[in-house]
Amino acid sequence: MRRAELPGVSLCMIVRNEAAFIEACLMSARPYVAEMIVCDTGSKDRTVEIAQSLGAQIVRWEWTDDFAAARNYALSFASQPWILVLDADERLEPAAMQVWERLLLADDQWGYYIRLISRLARTDAEQEESAVTDAVCRLFRNDERIRFAGIIHEECATAAAALQGGPLAIAPLTIRHEGYRADVMEERRKVERNLRLLSKALAQRPNDPLLRYAVGTELLSAGRWLEAAEWLHPLVGQLDDACGFASDVYLKLSHACRMAGRLDEAASVAEAGLQLYGDFPDLYEALAAVHIARDDARSALQVLQQASAVGEAAPYYSSVEGAGGYRTLYAAGAACEQLYEWQEAAAYYAAALRQRPGLERAWIRLLALYQAVEGEAAYGMKELWQAAVECLLHLNVRVRREEAAPGGGQRELERVRLRVAQLLLQLHEPDRCGPYIERLVEGAGGPGVQLLGWLRLQQGDLVEAERCWLAVEQQRLLGGEWAKLGVVLRCCASDGQGGTLAVSGEAQLLAGDWAGWLERVERAASVGAEEQSLPSMLQFGVLLHSVGWSRGGGDAEGDGSPTGLGGRAGYVWPGAPPRIGGPPFEAELAAGLLAAAVGRWREACDCFAAARSAAAQPAQGRAAASALAAAFAARASETLAGSEHGSLLPQALRSWNELRLIGLTALYPP
C-alpha cells in the first residue's frame, strides 16, 4: 500500500536553535508524514529558515519553562489521524511501508512505543562511542485526550494507555538521538537546565515518582553520586512495572552507590533488581562491576556469564548497547585478565570482536595478550586475531549510528580498518602482520599510503617508505609532518639509534627507535622537564619485549622478535632504565617492568615493592605483589638456568612473560 492510501501522519516538533540538526531530522521523517509542524520557541539561528525551506509549517510559542505545554501547542495544529513526535537532534530510521501500514491500520491501538537509541560520547575507558536504548511513546492517534504531561521529561504514554485499556505495543521503528553526546550536553547546558526545571516541577508535585527518578538521573549524569542515591533510594520497591522505569531505578541506584563507594548497598540493590528483572543484562553488568570493585573477579565472571546467557535486553528496558552481547563479553575478558587467565581472556575478546569487529578496546587487549605470551598460547592467540582481521576484511558495509549519512557506513568501516592496521603496526612484526596491514589499508587513499610507509620502514625498505610518504606529501595530506618523517628516514639510513628526538615519542616507538625513546625519557627527567607519560599499551609492551630481547623468548614459530629501527632486531639498554612519569603506582610499576626487561632483578623487586605500597586499589596491590613474586621467581629461574635444577620451577615462572602480563594488565586496566 502506498503512503497516500494510508491514514496520514502529522510530524510535530518543538525547536530552538537547532540549525545544526533540523535538516537531517526533517529529511528522515518526510517520506512517512503528510505534514510537518515545527513549533519554534525562540531560535536566533537559521532553524526556522531551514525548516521552511523543507516545507514545514512554522508556529511560534513563547517559552515558559514547560516542555509539555509547548508540545501540546504544537499538537493542536495537527490535522492528520496520527501524530509522530521527534526532537530536532533525532533521526527516524528508514522503515518499509508495510511496517507503517500495519501500525496505522491497527484499529485496537491508540499509540506505540518506539525504540530510541541515544548516542553517548566515547570515554577513555571504552575508546569508542556507545549508545543507550529506551522505549518512548512517539507515535499515537490524534485525539485531544492524548496530551503530554510534565514540564520536563514529559510523556504521553499514560494518556494513550488509558484510552487503550492496557499497555502500549512496541512498534518496529527506531529513532536515533544525538543529544546525550558530551559535546551536545555541554553546549546546551542540559543538566543545569533540567535540574532547574525539575526543581520547579517538584514544588508543585513533591512526591511524584517520575520527577524524583528524573532528578536522580540528572544527578547521576552530573557525577553527584551520593545525591543521586538519596533521590533514587526511596523509589525502590514502590513502583510497579506499569510506570516503565522501575527496572532502571535499580540499575541507576546500584551504579550511584558503587561510584560513591557504598559497595555492599550497590550489590544488594542489583541483586534485588535481578530478583524482579532476571532478563535485564545491564543489571548483571552492574553487579559484576561491584564485584570488580571488591577485587572479586571470579564472582564478576560468573555474573557476566549469566548476562551473556540472557542476551540483549528486551525493548522495554533502558539498556546500553552491547549489554548481553559484545559489551558483556569484553567485560568477561577483563575479569579473566584480573584472574591472570590469559587464554580465556583472549577467547572472550575474540568473541566480542565477532559481534562488533570495530571494538577498539577488544583489539588492544587481544593483541597485547598475543604480544606477551609464548609457545602454544601465542600460536592460539595469533589465530584469534587473524580470524578477527579476516572478519573485518570481509565485513559488508553494515552501518551503525553514522550510517544515516550517505556514504557514512563506508567511511566508518574504512576508519576501523585503518585503526586496526595502526594497532598491528605497533606489534612490530612486519613479516607476520604485513599482509594483513596491506589488505586493511587497500583503497583508503592518503591515510592508508601513510601507514603503508610505516610498514615498509619496519620491513627495512627505506626507499619504498620514502616513496609512500612522498606520495602522500604531494597530496598535501601530511603538512609539517613530512619533515619529521624525513628525520626518521635519515636516522634509519645512517643506522643510528637514538637520533629521532625531533619526532614524537609515538613516532619513535613506531619506528622502533627504542634507545631514542628511552633517551627522551631520561633527558626529560634530568632537566626537570615535563615527564614522559606512558605510551600506548601495545607500544610499551613491544618496548619491554625489545629492550630485553637478548635474554631469550620468542614464540612457537621462532620468528616473533619485534623489529627495531629500520627493520633491525631489538635493542638492549646499557644502564639503569629511566623512570616514566605518572602517579606513583604507575611510575614504580613501569620502572620495575623496564628493569626486569633487562634482567636487573634487584631493582625490579624494589620497584614492585614500592608500587605495592603506592597502590590505591586492591587489584593494584595484588598485581604489584604478584609482580614481585614473579620477579623473585624469574630471578631464581635465571640463577638455576643451565643447572640440573633448572626444571624445578613451573613453566609459568620460568619465563618473565607472566610478569610482563601481570604488570601490563595493572598499568593499563581493561
TrEMBL record:
InterPro entries: Glyco_trans_2-like, Nucleotide-diphossugar_trans, TPR-like_helical_dom_sf. Residues 10-96 form the Glycosyltransferase 2-like domain. Keywords: Transferase. The keyword Transferase applies. It holds the Pfam family Glycos_transf_2. CDD domains: Beta4Glucosyltransferase. GO terms for molecular function: transferase activity. The keyword Transferase applies. It comes from the Bacteria. This is Glycosyltransferase involved in cell wall biosynthesis. It comes from Paenibacillus cellulosilyticus.
